[in-house]
Model the fold of this input.
Amino acid sequence: MRIAEIQEALRAHGLDGWLFFDHHGRDPIAYRVLRFEPASMVTRRWYYLVPAEGDPVGLAHRIEPDMLAALPGEIIHYAGWKEQTAALARILEGRKRIAMQYSPNCAVPYVSNIDAGTVELVRAAGVEVVSSADLVQLFEVRWSDDAYRSHKEAGVLVDRVRRAAFEKVAAALASGVRVTEMEIHDFILDLFRARGLCTDHGPIVAVNANASNPHYEPTPERHSEIRRGDLLLIDLWAKFSRPGAAYYDITWTGYCGAAPPAPMLNVFRVVSGARDAAVTLVKKAADDGQELAGYEVDDAARGHIQAAGFGEYFFHRTGHSIGEEVHGNGANMDNYETHDERRVLARTCFSVEPGIYLPEFGIRSEVNVYRGESAAEVTGEIQTELLRLLQD
Done:
């Protein structure tokens, strides 16, 4: 159990406790942070309060009395709703500020797992409910040494797969053999499997206007041929098929010819410049030992694109947290879709992936940034120019 660690974090954040709650498995964060499996199916509400000082206390239904048996502290049982409300008020008595998996205005939807009614119920006990977002980062997002190594090792393989995918397209174009988005999509997945890698979905293989849809993915029913003169975007992510492994997630773009048109070159220059501006900010903050929030990283990339006159064509956040899930629960690099004020913590990883999506084509450049204890790094290869897939 990590009760002592949680209590230390609560005191550091000036909180009186962290109240965990679940009903029908709605909050997986609670089980991961507390490191326990429910003793039975969760058909009734349970609560578990870890106070900043003293022993934890839980509240479980009499139908499921052993639900919290694996956790330390007194477990109070209830049956009726009046009894539940009274017991909840009792365990919260004397507490002023309590963290829950809640986010004001749903600014951080990744941790906004507690329903509004439950928040109202807790507030009715005279308690201020604050977001557990920063606490969740501490206990869910920071990487172990093994996670970092798995990410770096997967990155080497994913970069090789990415090179092989572009080379396959180039060879087909040079020889006049028909090649499609779907064929390259399947080719990438086959290489992942052969190398012990897995992915939750994807990859994205997109040409021209398809690349202007950031979450486009070819299907057997809907895909395009890749032809000379096309802009080709490949976004691929994978991790090792073992517990605790962390994802690696990148996007590269190329031109299916030898001489990309000036507009494509200009867009790539702006996008890669925005990427580099964000990375530079993160590295400087790490070097100087300064705190940095996710929204500030987004501002650095977005400001660069806006200054170049393409602001309206960059319509997603700059980056997302990365962990055992490709979209993790840590700080996102975001001041667009949300205003993410969470700190970019040491031992966490995230993507930096600005993009410009014009009607004719879209370009995105994505790298992964790991902030260590005293420095930050891009963990894989960095695309510095638009790929040319043909020599003439």
Notes: The first helix runs from residue 3 to 12. Residues 64 and 248 are 40 Å apart (CA to CA). The two ends are 63 Å apart (CA to CA).
